[in-house]
Amino acid sequence: MNKAKLYHQLAPEAWHEKGLSKLNQLICLLILLASLTAILEIEPTLRAMAPGLFTALEAVFVGMFTVEYLLRLYAIGEDPRYRGVIGRLRYIFSFWALVDLLAILPFFLGFMTHNNAFLLRLLRLARILRLARLGRFSQAWSALASALKSRTHELLLSAGVAGLLLLFSSCCLYVVEAAAQPEAFGSVPRALWWSIATLTTVGYGDVTPITALGKFFAGITAVAGIGIIAMPTGILAAAFSDALQNKHGS
Amino acid sequence: MNKAKLYHQLAPEAWHEKGLSKLNQLICLLILLASLTAILEIEPTLRAMAPGLFTALEAVFVGMFTVEYLLRLYAIGEDPRYRGVIGRLRYIFSFWALVDLLAILPFFLGFMTHNNAFLLRLLRLARILRLARLGRFSQAWSALASALKSRTHELLLSAGVAGLLLLFSSCCLYVVEAAAQPEAFGSVPRALWWSIATLTTVGYGDVTPITALGKFFAGITAVAGIGIIAMPTGILAAAFSDALQNKHGS
Amino acid sequence: MNKAKLYHQLAPEAWHEKGLSKLNQLICLLILLASLTAILEIEPTLRAMAPGLFTALEAVFVGMFTVEYLLRLYAIGEDPRYRGVIGRLRYIFSFWALVDLLAILPFFLGFMTHNNAFLLRLLRLARILRLARLGRFSQAWSALASALKSRTHELLLSAGVAGLLLLFSSCCLYVVEAAAQPEAFGSVPRALWWSIATLTTVGYGDVTPITALGKFFAGITAVAGIGIIAMPTGILAAAFSDALQNKHGS
Amino acid sequence: MNKAKLYHQLAPEAWHEKGLSKLNQLICLLILLASLTAILEIEPTLRAMAPGLFTALEAVFVGMFTVEYLLRLYAIGEDPRYRGVIGRLRYIFSFWALVDLLAILPFFLGFMTHNNAFLLRLLRLARILRLARLGRFSQAWSALASALKSRTHELLLSAGVAGLLLLFSSCCLYVVEAAAQPEAFGSVPRALWWSIATLTTVGYGDVTPITALGKFFAGITAVAGIGIIAMPTGILAAAFSDALQNKHGS
């Protein structure tokens, strides 16, 4: 494969019309597998089953990412901005090239297989985002973003109302339940934990009011939680509906 | 009843305009009853109450489905594709005829009344789907499907965002809660169980964070869960709304 | 107040344009108070506080409803259909007059203050529905009903899909969890209790899977629960939106 | 800074077009910080860590609010309605000036640092609302309000239906579960606590039915809960969508 073909296979800018190239699809898959390995490695029962496997897999993935990095460095010469040695150096210090480097360098510096390197390895997922942003989903992405943007004020306002409700119900429960359950409702920040679980309708049930008055206010909070869900949903539905009709109308 | 009439009563293709035929409605009812029997038979308290009843019911249902199978085999001769002995043989090995056979054959082979045949008996429900797909609901079905299809990318994108949120909140909780609750948050896959219960606002409460920092991240996750519900709902609402207006407009 | 005025104050048909009459508003309030009394009377702590109060209140309410019943019987003569003694008798045996009678007769027959008469007393709430149906809400009521009706098939279909999901997830959990938790997942009807709590995102947490495979299927079920909520919401939103535009467009 | 400039910086009426002035943004921030301090002060662990800090912070905030109050009193002279001494007196007894006074006066009267003054201090948040109402969010606010208003009857009706469902499911569970769990379902008001947690899909799980019939009705209630969420969401989505199209159309 010559340099120009390789560049078109690797370059994210190139797949804008035709979707993700074969090579980039393979890289996406590798990133996902590497992230999955990083996640599963922490699980003690799995690590006990195959102690050496995860280290070996990590070495294989880093090897592949290193080859990818060098290929990109070679092929980028097709881009007039990054031609020659100076251009290559400029590319190395560009944002996404640094992210690519961060995905492999720590392994060679010797601390990539440690437990504390877990989050560093998950940073690789950011590289998928970069690919996905430009690929087949770019239209859907901008449609969602513009719908959200057109209703920023309404969404912020309903978030503000939700925040005030959260604060208000926490204060109510603190006032009526603090005496009965000081551990769970002894202060507003403590009551906030119950309040957030109720208003979002998650409802863990690890903390529930026990006094009659507390249950009364909790019931009102739970009903208000429906509004907290209905408001943003309604706003988003209207925004998406409107975004589509504008597209059709023009 | 002559062969042509029987064919029109049985053939799924025939009710496209007038809805389900009387005979096919009866068969639907029988399938539902047979499935219900298969489900209830597993319940120990019910089986203890009437040990022989369920076996007898199953024999009756299989007998009826056998008669149905033979009638279909007889009447299919009306269809030019399946005329004569060769045509009948070709019909027997068509997909839906094999599904029909699978609903009765295991009983005669002697293992249909065993507990492990439970899932095999539920396969009969697939036969209802075949009827429902063509009947009165075919329009509603295609309306829903086309609405979902027109927004595939937006829905996949919001699923991707939900997946990343799921992973992100699991990692957060693993980092801050693993020390306090190694059993529940000792690895990312374990934290995922909590994370999925929270982001979908199910909130079982069998696993909840106990540290202050864990509760802080859990609260943020719960609030994000509202978005996880609001996004697909809004997208679907817009899609259904648009699908209807196109129908009216044309 | 003369008979014609009284008739216009009492007759539900009369307030169609101007909303509920003063007298009917008072009756609505009385029904709500009587129902509240019936509900609160069951609570042992309240009955212990004031043993005679609830019986006295019930007597007062029945007295007022008796006066209302007699006034209606007197004023109905204004309606040409119910003129004279024969007309009055015909009125007494009309549906709503019998409901009115049912609200007071049991008390005089001596079993209205018993605990088992609780549900009978709540039947009075049906009388509010009759008033509300014709009053100021009649437009909103028909708007909601027509929106629901226009999408009956889509709603039934998504209910069918929800039902199959419910059955499918119960079967999955029964297969993988029955051995570990025979009490909670020992049969499909038992697993259904967990399944319904999860798919509706209620999530009591009294029954949760404990095996890894069970948690895997439970996670998928919880995610599917979002669709179960998003589908009907989206359909309803589109239906309401369309209903309104038709009104404006015509 | 001269009086006219100060007035334009302080007056809420002035920022209608250009958003919130720098000075008012600073005051908003101060109010939020003061409220946060009031909330955190109650938490025993925090108060134990820094006993004098919260009292000192409160003194600082009150000092700043006092300066703000005096500046407003001085600058209000620019408004022709509040010119001169008589005007200033009229201003002092206007609604928002009294709210401003309430935010500082209790401290000087000596009971602002007590625990029972907690709610009084949170009243300051009302001052933020006043600013937010007129600022950049006024358009979003009126859009939300008009959307809610245009569907008042539909929303009230679905609230009424929800209320009846709540009552109905409480009565069902009371009838079938009272014998098995008198503590949790011994009366309708007690069953209401379970009912509200289920219909809003919060599902704490502190109270769950244990009889087969109770679980059957609970399952129906949980499914109905989806409708309780879907109805207002759909109505709001349609209302927001319509509100936007009217704006574009005119």
UniProtKB/TrEMBL annotation, chains A, B, C, D:
Q: Which residue windows are transmembrane per the record?
A: 23-42, 48-71, 91-112, 155-176, 216-240
Q: Which InterPro entries match?
A: Ion_trans_dom, VG_K_chnl
Keywords in alphabetical order, please.
Answer: Ion channel, Ion transport, Membrane, Potassium, Potassium channel, Potassium transport, Transmembrane, Transmembrane helix, Transport
An example Pfam family from this entry, by short name, is Ion_trans
One BP term from GO: action potential
GO CC annotations, alphabetized: voltage-gated potassium channel complex
- What are the Ion transport domain coordinates in residue numbering? 24-244
Places the protein is found:
Membrane
List, alphabetically, the Gene3D superfamilies matched. 1.10.287.70
Bilayer topology: Multi-pass membrane protein
* Origin superkingdom: Bacteria
Q: What is its main location?
A: membrane
For this protein, what is any one GO molecular function term? Answer: voltage-gated potassium channel activity
| Name by which UniProt lists this protein | Ion transporter
Organism equals: Vreelandella nanhaiensis
